[in-house]
Amino acid sequence: MPLHRHRPARAIVALLASCASLSLVACARGTTAAPADEVVSTRGVVVSAHHLASDAGAAALAAGGNAVDAAVATAFALAVTHPSAGNIGGGGFMVIRLADGTATTIDYREKAPLASTPTMYLDAKGRISPSATDSGWRSPGVPGTVRGLAAAHARFGKLPWADLVRPAAALAEHGFALSGPLAQELNWAVDSFLAPFPASVAAYGKPGGGRWAAGDTLKLPQLARALAAIAEGGPDAFYSGWIADSLAAQMKAHRGLIARADLAAYQAIERAPVRGTFNGYEIIGMGPPSSGGAVMVMVLNQLELLGLSGLTRGSAAYLHRRIEADRRAYLERARWMGDADFTAIPMERLLSKAYAKELVAGIDTARASSSLALGKDIVTDAGESRETTHFSVVDAEGNAVSNTYTLEGGYGSGVVVAGFLLNNEMGDFNKKPGYTNTGWAIGTPANVIAPGKRMLSSMSPVIVTKDGALRLVAGSPGGRTIPNTVLDVVLGVTAFDQGLRDAVDGARVHHQWMPDTAYLEAGAATPEVLRALRAMGHVVKEEPARSQGDAHSILYDAATGTARGVNDHRSPDSKASAPPR
Ligand code: DON
Fold it and tell me: How far, in Å, is the centroid of ligand 1 from the Cα of 440?
């Protein structure tokens, strides 16, 4: 990534202000003709869940920044404008591919506090206590976002760090106008999830106690102060400055586990990506502690062997193959996956085409197989019985960033410390060691809690290339549904010859081994196809339309250097932005 001269922060703030006050079309003026809900540009594109965050990224590009600079600016802006998932108190993964063809990833997943134990979420009767993992002071892992963004910036950024963080601090200080959906969401959060935590209600409730409405301005002064400190002091302001002091003191006061030593020890790690091939495309994804890259590659390897030629996305024949491939890949996830710094994962074998042959060997093209029969070696109880955000960036030179980060549940733990929401990521560990059922519980050793360990994730930021050239950047929220949502976009482009808008809009499919149920967004299959799948033995549940994931994606044409940004209408405030000419 060639170095450019640094531009002053006020250039970004000014550009952001101009973009924010203009319509999408005007903001993206100078872009080539495209449908109204796509942005096509040779100067780079940023697509995220909030228009102001996309604009912040586009402003960084306009100021001479590269894709990593734009990603950092977008991530900090989302921490303000997309409070359910944008964050500095959570963690995530960034996949980076440079225009020279090299690729890497940044793992900034949260870690279990040093005082955590394998059974810390079990009550006296050995039952998982959901209240402790779902919310409150004992649910957060040690946050990784600020270290992760700083690591990516230190390695690849061109613009000064402060220039990328200050715009977010300004957004938090001066506030921004709420959309109707975000106003409603905040009212709901304040009434329910944030209600037990006075600092959270003070931060996100309407001043004076009324109801938020569209057009109201949300100001976050405490968050502005924390962001200003991070802008000026770098990540150390978060991990060892007054922010760390405040977090640790409040944790202690509320019997939480994160101590100053946890924060001081936290490091983001650069790791080699997971790689696979499908139909002549290369898949560059996230490795452990995310299962996302491996699950996607295992599904694609099986589909390649099963053959998709002549099949359409809504056909029973395709959906049957897809469900069977999903079932097997997610079983391998449950069996093997966790933090590879703590547990041995046979990644080479799992990702190999030879292993895919073994996986597909038992697939009958006319009959559903049984998840229980396939995974009976790990199921210990056969009797039983989703907030995250993704953004994609491509710059004028073809450098690409695929970033998914999260607080885990919407608004994370519900706990606000020093102005920011803390995650509830500890719930992603296997909370009851040894207990795997036919519902949602997995208890395999690889993802059991240990001090300093990262919890297994399904986040699947991905970059796809063809003939050595950048083609697609995608990712999504949605917990365990994430690899499947991203696969729907990848398969739309690489197997079903869909344009990116159709690939993103298309109704989605999910099967995760257990529960042994295929979840189909309404529209994924006609009534006749649903009948055919059920006749094959599949348990199929129709989900509401547009309910799975939120895949803000970019398609790239290397011949012309043109990036096509497509936001996912499943999130109402989302937008693709390009730097103005
Ligand atoms: O890392 C994971 O897989 C989950 N904590 C992600 C949570 C998520 O996507 C919730 N969003 N809808």
Answer: 14
37 vs 52: CA distance, rounded Å:
16
Q: What is the pTM of this model?
A: 0.93
The 3-class SS string of 85-139 reads CCCCCCEEEEEEECCCCCEEEEEECCECCCCCCCCCCECCCCCECHHHHHCCCCC
Query: What is the average per-residue pLDDT within 570-580?
Result: 95
92 CA distance to ligand 1 middle (Å): 10
User: Ligand 1 pocket, 483 CB below 6 A?
Assistant: no
Top mutation candidate among 391, 482, 546 for ligand 1, by most atoms within 8 Å of CB: 482
Contact 3, 158 (CB under 8 A): yes
pLDDT tens sequence across 522-555: 999 999 999 999 999 999 999 999 999 999 999 9
Q: Measured from the CA of 291, which atom of ligand 1 is nearest?
A: 3
Q: Which residue type does 554 have?
A: I
Query: Residue 321 half-sphere exposure, CB side, CA atoms within 13 Å?
Result: 20
Question: Which of 388, 436, 444, 485 is flagged as catalytic?
Answer: 388
Neighbours of 530 (CB within 10 A): 18
What is the band of 130 on the pLDDT scale with cuts at 50, 70, 90?
Answer: confident
**Pocket of ligand 1 contains residue 110 by CB under 6 Å:** no
Contact 400, 394 (CB under 8 A): yes
253-290 pLDDT tens trace: 999 999 999 999 999 999 999 999 999 999 999 999 99
User: How far apart are alpha carbons 44 and 66 in whole angstroms?
Assistant: 9
